[in-house]
Request: fold
Amino acid sequence: MSEAAHVIEAETFTVTNPATLEEAARVPVFTEAQVAQTVARSREAQKNWAALSLGARGKVLKRFRDACLDNKEEIAEALVAETGKPLAEAYGIELLYLSDMIGFWAKNAARFLADEKHSPHLLKTKRAYSVYKPRGVIGMITPWNYPLVLSIGEAIPALMAGNGVVIKPSSTTPMTTVIPCRIAEESGMPEGLLAAVTGPGSIGWELIDHVDMVSFTGSVETGRKIQIKCAEQLKPTTMELGGKDPMIVCADANIERAANGCVWGSLTNAGQVCMSIERVYVNEKVYDDFVGRVVEKVGNIRQGEPADDCDIGSMTQLSQLEQVEQQVDRARTEGARVLAGGRRVEGRRGHWYEPTVLVDVDHSMEIMKEETFGPVIAIQKVTDDSEALELANDSKYGLSASVWSKDKAGAMNIARRVEAGGVCVNDHMIHMMVPEVAMGGMKESGIGHRHGAGGIRKYCHQQTILVDRFGLSKEPIWYPVPKGAVNLYKRILNLLFRSGWRNKLSA
Reply:
């Protein structure tokens, strides 16, 4: 078997375990007709699903959660076989996130989707209402790095909003989506409401043609193409794209905490996180101390297969490993120094790369400009917070960032000036675990948000209903136009909108 992440064949494709290069699963390649049929089944199921109360939908989803937990070993085993990540991450991040999101949306969807009553500021004889209605069937095109969080996890608010969901998972990690979809039906969710279509990337393009909205997580390049296709069909989209996320370490930071946070924030999931730390800007006063601690901690990282007692596993895709390798090698030739790692893991079959620390980097290097998406920590010395902020914002990306300082008010001030959708103070990317607030990007990092009110309302049409309060036989602006209307309207305009009482009362 080749070292490709997957090999497409006639009617099925083989999913390969990236840690061992052994076969993990064989999965069907959907035809265009099967994609259309899957969406049609979801659409039919959605009609009755949308008619249920939010409370009833929540009960169904909680049964689904219980069933997922009953089958957590099967889900976790498929997940680690497809990604190469440790079992601890499968349980402690992916299954934890899914379980929490189900509970959160089951409890809070009614608050976010309740009819909103408005009193018009001008038309006092009217009442206005904002009403949220499901869009229909949501098509989700999802990535391989967090295949449970970013597929089934993202489907939960769409389902609670009353939609059907059809997911095109990455062909690298399809079973992590297929298995929960099967469990959903077994737990009593309407047949076909939540479904997966599997195969190469072209299946995602087929899916777009049949759904009512597209949710995409992945690269900027692919996101741009999807946006164009959806625009041609006037279909709404929500997108989380790439990141090149900075970490700013101030002179007064708790260096031990910052170093620990840096190592975790850079290396979790082998660095294959759109919100992982990829650029570190450290004040020169604490630079040496910080670098020394990071190198020491990276040296203690346990890297191994999922069943091992380890901290990080393999990378998931050979192409991604090669990209990391090329960026590090190029940076080395341009003057960067490797203080730890910097090469593939010797003696292992699979997609293994050592946790790596680079110093003497600058913004002329690709590794400080383009997304790395691997286990690499690139550290740059800065003179002060202003330089750190300027460099942090010197990017086409704006997804996530962090500021580290004992002065929380000062750190908040820096955070407000960072051009990123989410900024943590003395922590990193953990806002993804706080569903009460929005999570999304600026610049080329995405359109729309997960979580918060917008994280569920985006899956709805917002309908306005306006009601007359008094039922008079005629409105002042209805026909026929009264005599002297022009002069009357002039006086009304002055009275309502001119500044100062003398001006209001002038002719």
